[in-house]
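So, does this match?
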Amino acid sequence: METRFIESLIAIVENGSIAGAARSQGLTPAAINQRVRVLEMEFQTPLFQRAGKTVLPTEECLRLLPHAKELVENASLLRNHMDETGLTVELKIGIISTAMASLVPDTLASLKALAPNITVDIIPGTSTFLYDLLDRGDLDVAVLINPPFNYSKKITGLLLRSESLMFAGSKNQNLSINEALQSQPYIRYGSNSWGGQLADQYLRHHGISPEVFCTIDDMETSARMVASGLGVSLLPNWCGREQVAYDLSWCTIEDTTYNRDIVIMRQQGTGKEKALTVFEKALINTHQKFR
């Protein structure tokens, strides 16, 4: 049984279509369809139901799926074990959006130079989403906001950066931070995110009940809105903020209670420890450019 064919089956389920699976694997839809037909003949059962441009996994396919993922993972580990360096492996990496554009390109370039046989699957998402994937074993490593609770015992964390909470207002702002937050429209950093909860804590601790203009979990867009005169905001000093040239004033909240810590979290016992250590090194080296 070709593990490549099993990988295509998994890709169809994850993408919801033959075309999406083909794009993700760099193949043609015809090649993906051929692989499905081979698997259906081998398992002697239909694996998908067609519904227009989408495909739905059958019950038989869903029963196979956990074992299929395990098979692909074990095949990857086998290739890794045959390489004495332990650096022939695929890493499933989850990364929050604010680290994606600023850190990922240079990190991957560094990783390729250090270990050219490591391949990566990048999964973007919120910290909550990525932590859940990591805890389930669907990620090897994640770059995310430090969660407001104790980690699972199978997960370790390494601090990458600590980001001060900052007040963002117009350049002609003459009020104090707290006066401006109380009196001007407030662009709220999404309270469902762990970082947004830190901004909410600041407001509560200082007895501030701002008039919320809108809530959004996108810091660059929030900064654009402040620059457009739509209000003020509390945002973390995210990686790459200095490269965003907006005509506004930034003031640091000195109390580190409200800092947003970005951590590298990894699964223990994956068999990919050497590759994960190389990835951490590449990421930390890239991050030094932003300090």
Observations:
- The radius of gyration is 23 Å.
- The longest helix spans residues 59-82.
